[in-house]
Amino acid sequence: MPEETNPQAEAITPEQEQPPAEQPASTETAEPSGEDALPEWARKELAKVRGEAANYRTRLRDAESRLSEAKDPAEIEAAVTELKAQNAELERSLLRNSVARRHELPDDLADALRGEDEAALEAHAKVLAKYVPAPLPPSLGGGLTPDDGDGEMDPRKLARLTRR
Prior knowledge:
By secondary structure, the protein is mainly α. The chain has seven helices and no strands.
């Protein structure tokens, strides 16, 4: 059964809950916070996860509306059967993605995993992992590369730089 909510409680935003004196003042020199501080890959992953969550919320609302509109037991049973099928597919997708992450497979290959249970998915992931190139190791350089500078060292320039 869907929960009934108070429309007045939903209309209050977080800005309205805080008194004006407690709201943080915006400064132009402040460091970026929240999503702006995240690297690009994290922002993409966050957007992907938020999209999936929105999809799940819409599916939930659709299922709630179908169940509330059902008149006889046959309609209710059909709606419940459909929800169980969707739930099973979501659980399989979650299992497939977790196995792919464990074996460090890219997203494209995660969708290609075959198998009905975790053991079959693991076996197929091991086979696919053989064909995925290993990630490049992090750069172990000391910071300078041999082609830095013109090769000449002027002690006077170095001395002037250290005095400043």
